Amino acid sequence: MFHLRKKSIDDLLRGTYLELLRKAGSEVLSSKGRSLETFGAVLELTDPRCRLSRSIGRSRIFSALGEFLWYVSGSNSIDQIEYYIKGYSEISDDPDKKTANGAYGPRIFSAVEGFEVSQWDNVMSILKNPERRGTRNAVIVIPSPRDFIIKTKDRPCTCSLQFVVRRNQLHLHVHMRSNDAYFGMPHDIFSFTMLQELAAREVGVGIGTYIHTVGSLHIYADPEKLDHRQDAQKYIDEGLYSNTPMPQMPQGDQWTNIRMILEAEAEIRNGNLDFLPKADLPPYWLDLLALLRVYGCFKHLGEASESERERIVRGYLSGLHHGEYNLYILDRLQRAPIA
Hints:
Number of helices: 10
Shape: globular
Structural class: alpha+beta
Helix content: 25-40%
Order of helices and strands: EHEEHHHHEEEHEEHHHH
Number of strands: 8
Radius of gyration: 20 Å
């Protein structure tokens, strides 16, 4: 059993990569090739808002934000997620490559078959009930038995999300059957801690610890297929990073703001970079909207000169309320597209 308790995602990644690289010579063979694995891992993130890596190699703010918004949109659209992360069409079971079988959004936010409520709404109603604050039943289950019987290239890796409120703080325990520590884990922890904070705001409590348990926590080590050992070592060699959290979400239920962000995200993804929401957004969400516009510049303004693109990007960044986001953008202005 591997157990690591740290304040930031960078501290967790560093400790995880050191542990996995130590297992050189004991590779595990799976359908995706050889990997270095620790079976049975418990990772605790004591400050869930320290969810963004500050390293050069692992700072993936745009793809992480895009994946989170894909979840909360309730969509299984390949086009939506491939705008941020390439490769989803390769694992789609859909002949037209339009939908993802393993998409988490519909499983979390769509009505459960035979009921008129989603798993998310059910969990929120339980946690909001003062008489059930100590409940152990606020659980979202991602896969169904069918997922492990059918032939599919897109089987959910996440098994469950369990929310608890203890001492007026909302803690989240996510369990995964399998987790790619290099590509998958940073995105997973970002999205799930965002859901944790979103739930805490909806319930009206503080945000507690995030616990990430994994059956097979691994890093690919197959020179003929996929090999991230050198990438992981390069990350370790970058050194230690400051623990700078994202700003706090505004108080109160955030779904009105999220719906406006989702509307703007769809417009920006289709090229309408200056789309304005119908109502004012709090600074927290305005900053994320600015990041979506910056990413849109690199996706849609490929024919613009570098100087013109930089001028537009800096214009979007000029109004940022959280200046730390500049870290993820300014050193990449000459590199397009951003991912």
